[in-house]
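>> received
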Amino acid sequence: MLPGLAIMATSVATDPVEVVYESAVALVAQGAKRSVFGGAEFDYRAGQYLLVPIDLPVTGLVIEASPEVPFLAMGLAIQPAIVAALLLEGEFGELLPVQYPQATINTADEDLLDAFARLLRLLDHPEEVPIMRPMIERGFFGAC
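>> returned
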C-alpha cells in the first residue's frame, strides 16, 4: 500500500457526492468524471488529469462507466511540504488558470503518464517508497 494513493473503479455512473478534495493529482484512465466547484462544472475523461493544489470542497460524480468500459482513475495526495516548496518557487504561476486558480484540468503528456506508472511500480517495491515517492511526486508538477 502506498499512503495517499487512491485507485478508483466503478462499472456504473454515480450520483453526485459532496466531498473535500485534498491537494492531489488525479488521472482518468478510462471513462469520465464531473467535478463541480466554484459554481462551475468540469468534465475530465480518459487521458486527462485534475490538479488540485489546495483542499477544495467539490461535488463529484462519475458520468461515463459501464460493465464493458468501467471508470478507472488513480489519484495521489500531494504532500503539503511539496506544495509549499513549489508555491515558494513560483511553480504554480504558469500552471493554474487565472480565472479559477484552485484547480485545473489538462491532457496528460508522456511525462505525467510515466510518473503515474513509476508510482504504480512502487507498489511492488515498498522499500523504495521513502526515497522515490518525493522525487516522483515533485515530478508530477514538472509534467503538469
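>> The first helix runs from residue 80 to 88.
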